[in-house]
Each structure stands twice: as structure tokens, then as C-alpha cells.
Amino acid sequence: MNVTVMGATGHTGSKITPLLLESGARVRALGRNANKLSLLESAGAEVRAGDACDPAFLTQAFRGADAVYTLLATDRQAPDYAVRQQQEGEAIAQAVRESGVRHVVTLSSLGAELPAGTGVIAGLHAQEERLQRLPSAPHLLFLRPVSFFENFLEMLPLMLETGVHADSVLPDLAMPMVAAADIAEAAAQALLARDWQGVAVRELLGPRDMSHAEVTRILAEHLRRPDLRYVQIPDAEMAQALVEGGLSGSFAGLYVEMTRAFNANRLQPREGRNAANTTRTRFEDFVAEAIPAPR
């Protein structure tokens, strides 16, 4: 079988592609950076570098595939993040329509059923709706995880420098968090099986709900940094910190809108936690593998 994977060098795509290749699928791996894609080419994938906003590029890449994995890999430095999400989403929808692919697995998010007030997630709601409006719509599977464990790795250098893990999320708010590897496993299984009809949704919630304070305690123990602590900062301060870190003001504003939605308990699993939406990788095990322990 033939599968096309968008974002093949990203958190999920870089894990989906090897799983598919190991299962004997022919994989067309898409990304922006030809140098990064070369590693997947060496592993046996056909690689294509191009712009996710280019419908012609995506249509050619989707054509002939039995299934495709799509996502909005929006650049967090985009001057208008929501507009960029829309451009990418429209290009993907056009490519799905014109290529004739019949099974589409799309990375979405918990809360994507809500049309507004959720920051960056609202763009994923729009994409789910856009794909469902396609004439002769393909079979759609929306994967809805929440915060990736990998997000904390991006913050780690600043944590180690300052001794503070800062964010605008309430310190003791328990929320689902998940490893990208678990998302990739669910996506690869669905792409290979293609065993759903119409529109399906699968939430991916990690093994348990965790608070940012608990995450920080686990990191502190692993890093042998008892001084490391979590501090909730005001939305405006968080947005400014993101901008100072090189992200766009547009993204920063949407990020803090999303954390307000979390803090207000607006982003909840549709059916609570159950065996189907609970994934296996614990944060403790992820940290032990991803972060070298100090000697």
C-alpha cells in the first residue's frame, strides 16, 4: 500500500514514517527541509520537499496514495498565525479533493469541536469542518491529543538557566498530556488498517492527567535540580515571553487564549478517560529516555 505523510520530520511524522516502512508500506514523506528528509530517504521513503501552502505540491504528493496523514504544521513565527493556518488548511483540503485519496488521518486536538475561544485550537476546528465539507468527502479520522510531552523539552534550557518553569496554566490543573510516539502509533495503525467509514474521532490522552506542577517535580527529580519550581505567570507576561523568545505576537495571543480555555476547564474529553483514549507512555519514562541524567 501507498501512504503519504505530511510533516515527516516533525514530532509525529518522523515516528509515523518508520512504523509504516517497517510494516512494508511504501511511504512518501513530505517536509520543508530536504536535508532533514534525507534521513528518511535513506530508510526507504520517497521524499518530497515543498510548501504545505502549495495545493499543487500537495495534490501531486497525495495522488496515488491509499491513505494520507495531514496536519497543520504552522510556523509559530508567522506574522498572522490564524491566516497561515487557514492557508495551509485550504491547500490540504484542495489536495485531498483533487487527488482523490479516500482515507485521511488528520492531527487535530482535544477541544476541536469548539468553534472559538480556544486559541490555536480554533484553527483545527476550522480544518475539521473544511475537510467534512468536501464533495464526495473521504473517510476522515481526526486524532485529538492535547499537550505533547515534547513541548516541555523546548522549555528546558530556560528552566535550567532560571530554575523556573513558567507558563500561564494553573499550577495544579490536571490535564491530559501525551507522547508524540503514542500519537504516531495510533496514526500508523489507522493508516495501515483503513478500517473506519465516514467521520471518526479518536482522542489520545496519555496514561493519566498531569498538572504543570507535577511535570516540574518529575523534571526536577530527574535533573537533580530540587530548586526547579513551577510558576504561573499572567497572560500578558506569558505572551511577552513568547515574543521575546522569537515567536510572533499573533501566535502568542492565541497561545494564552488556549491556556485560558484550559484554566476554565473548557477543553475536556468527550467521553471522559477510558481504555480507548488512554495511551501507554508515562511522562517519567519519556523524560528518562529523552533527557540525559546528570552525572
Q: How would you describe this protein?
A:
With 295 residues, the chain is an alpha/beta fold. The protein folds into 2 domains: 175 residues, NAD(P)-binding Rossmann-like Domain (Rossmann fold), CATH 3.40.50.720; 108 residues, UDP-galactose 4-epimerase, domain 1 (Alpha-Beta Complex), CATH 3.90.25.10. Helices cover 44% and strands 17% of the residues. The chain is built from 11 helices and 12 strands. A 7-stranded parallel beta sheet has the order 3-2-1-4-5-6-10, sandwiched between helices. Strands 7-9-11 form a 3-stranded mixed beta sheet. α9 runs antiparallel to α10. The protein starts with a strand and ends in a 5-residue tail after the last helix.
Number of domains: 2
Work out the radius of gyration: 19 Å
Under the CATH scheme, the architecture of the largest domain is 3-Layer(aba) Sandwich
Assembly state: single chain
- Major sheet: arrangement of strands: 3-2-1-4-5-6-10
Stretches where pLDDT is under 50 for at least 5 consecutive residues are none
